[in-house]
Amino acid sequence: MEDSVLDLCCGSGDLAFLLSEKVGSQGKVIGLDFSKELLSVASSRQKLLSKPCYENIEWVEGDALDLPFSDGYFDGITMGYGLRNVVDKRRAMQEIFRVLKEGSRVSILDFNKSNVPITALIQSPLSLGMDD
Ligand SMILES: C[S@@+](CC[C@H](N)C(=O)[O-])C[C@H]1O[C@@H](n2cnc3c(N)ncnc32)[C@H](O)[C@@H]1O
To answer: Which GO biological process categories is it annotated with (predicted)?
Structure first.
């Protein structure tokens, strides 16, 4: 099956490269970020690593708050340490659910605002969570 997956706020592409190996050469991975510089690093790494499956990755300059894709386009979405960086988390989540196919999955890796004192202490410099 040809899965299309999106790595949001991909930065220099670590997660996109992992996804690429999972979906294989029949699938498609799009790494999206609004930093031209980081996308250029990602693209250089793609060329340098030159694994055949990495040819299924496309780098797109864009805003996570206004995704340039049609409704229900993706079979899966990942976002690593991106949600805490977007200025409008609710809007980012709305966009994620808009472009996901029904019944598909989104995996978001981030820190959260914890009420457990020890966790809060460890995470305090990085803690942002959903506050709206
Ligand atoms: C901490 S980095 C994470 C990079 C990568 N996902 C990783 O795990 O290494 C956060 C990324 O979010 C991107 N970013 C923040 N807000 C964004 C937005 N509204 N649209 C697209 N990218 C955004 C930044 O350019 C940056 O590359």
So the answer is: methylation
